[in-house]
Design goal:
The protein is mainly β. About 5% of the residues lie in helices and about 35% in strands. It has one domain: Umud Fragment, subunit A (Ribbon). Strand 5 and strand 6 form a beta hairpin. The longest helix has 4 residues. About 25% of the residues are buried.
Length: about 140
Amino acid sequence: MAEMKRSQMAPAPDELSGCASAEPFALQVIDDSMEPEFKKGCIIIIDPEGLATDGSYVIALIENGYIFRQLRRHEDKYYLVPLNEAYAHEAREIAIEQVKGVIIQQAAPNGRRKDRKKYEYRTKSEVNPGCGTCGQG
């Protein structure tokens, strides 16, 4: 049986508003809960306007912090699931509104281009166009 571990969460900052909240941003992975796909220390790029679908890697707001997980859908319910089996006990049901962004790219901390990986995604504004570049209607 895999060792049970506790994942780390990033504290929830003050919410951004308007178009500034739609800008992609980078975070560093601080634990091994998403290995083997995302190594501890790698950099992930998050698009807050990314459309979260089954299988997407996402950032979600839970309790008082953000957590990085894979989003899974089963029988009209959504779950955040770690990839590392040592964290399997931390899988949890969430409301889709708790998802605050979709991972669109990862890079090794060394910053070399050959170590970057992109992920397929669509933006919310592609699905539901709003006003101009920020997609707000």
